[in-house]
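Input sequence (631 aa), recorded before submission:
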Amino acid sequence: MSGCELSRWRSSWTAAAEEQWVAASEGKYKETAAQFLVSTWQGNALASVSRSGSQSPEEDYRQEPTGLPLTTLQRVGQAICTLPEGFNCHQDVATLLVARRDMVAHADSRVDWAMAEALAVGTLLLHRDPIPDTPHPFLDNPAAAPLGWGLNRGHYDVRISGQDCERGTFGQRHAVLWDQKTAQRLVLLSSVKPGAQDVVEVWNSPLNEAAVLGFEYGYSLGARDRSLVVWEAQFGDFANNAQVIIDQFIASGEEKWGQTSGLVLLLPHGYDGQGPDHSSARIERWLQLAKDDPDTLPGHSPAHRRIIKETFEAISRETGGKMYKDHILQLLTALGLGSKARSSSSSGANLASSSTSSGSSDDAELAELLWEEMGIPEGQALTRGNWERFMLQYMRRYAERDANLCIVNATTPAQYFHLLRRQVNLPHKKPLVLFTPKYLLHHRPCSSALKDFTIGTFFNRVIDDGKASDNTRHRSVNKATGQPFLLPPDAIRRVVLCTGQVYYQLSKVRRAKRLRDVVLVRLEQISPFPHDLLMNVVRQYKNAELVWAQEEPKNMGAWSYVQPRLVTALRHCGGLAHSSDKGQGVSAIAAEQWASKQVKYIGRAAAASPATASFAIHQKETQDIIDAAMA
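Predicted structure, token format:
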């Protein structure tokens, strides 16, 4: 480019910029209330209600269900456990594949962690079938079988990388097999349904966490909405070597640059007596990166309340000070939330000048749904209180939307399955930090029934003792007498809140001691913190004391994050009515009594080192924790 050409280009660009600056100064680009609304999460809030009444899957705002038909699970399970003719597999791996085929034999078969992962990946790869090629064997009426055994509206590439991830650090995965004679590489997940599935990649990576995690983060940005991208550390604390990538990109990239990522980090975590360097995935550090306010419920922060107030006032000004149902109809039409698409020229139009007749019957139905959801009597105007309550309920229901990370410590194979499938179809992409087990990978009680993967099941942020989401519920009733193991809720003496593998140790000792008045509640999703869901469980046990049990030292693990949020939940959610309090309006225990409840800590004492190097000391510390929790 010559100097003259450069000067002309510079002059042209400067003139255009000045022209836009003058136009902006004159108010040409001033946002209308509707334009501002649709640019914030409040637009999503309106959309969530309007589309929740839709019967069409394509119009459903929320993610598709993660549970699948039993036939789908069985076919995928069979495919990923069947070796091609002539492949010379190691005998131990061949035996493992036989055991895995048994895991999908029937609805009550028990599925382990690695098989749950394989089922999740295999079903995400599949293209949707319009017609099933065989009838559903577990329905009385085969004609009622769900259409398509893939059921994915979308289908996704899957990429898994990490240190020894092909085999699995703990010998659990075996996603890549090798012919013992020819050294041929085989990925059985690539042949679930040839010609009707996407691509799966499983690659071992070097011990250079910063470089590899940085690459996978970048890959997840380019593959957003098309791929599940997973990075696995050999041990959870190895992620320390990628701290710059975590701090600068994964935890803050969306807020700084608007770059959303659905990257999944698998971080093995658990106190199994392996010493300071192979025990902790540093849960406390990840939770410190979460941006939620410990002292308020989702949506109740000063920033959220300010934007709710300013939006309502702006819309009210455009409608002459009051908003009636026809104004809501015009708002929905302007935002294009109806099934009939609106042209871009109508989006964000001034509400006061919009014509009511421009709305379709679909928009009118949406307005009715929204009016009903806000609880406004016919003929009355929308008040700021109605608007605030509706928006606050949305924020509490969809707290993940406002989060920068989703941090989970799952304890069952079914939970892991639903998490991976949920990750690709959430309406808002967020990095998922998942603490995974080690010894539980081969621990018989850590299994889920195959029916826990089927239609109607989903990821549970909180697991209540003996309920449908509890993978050990089959042991909650004496088969001989039919008597439940636990006493009625009013007779429960202690509620032990916990997260991670410590649950199985607590459960084993509780059963051995036949402690029927102690309930174990698992917090699966730690952040965003599920205030309402947790309190809905805790409120059942009105006469019980609350304790938090963890295997990490007091200054580590989840306690420092959970403790203030538990206080907030008790203060704001404790007095709400529980479903068991029929006709009472509020729970039997007054709100102030819940707010005054104390949560006792049980765990290792504060320490500089994550764990002891002595296995004997480790066993003694663990036993002390279990004894204190079961006291």
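Checked by second reader. The first helix runs from residue 3 to 25.
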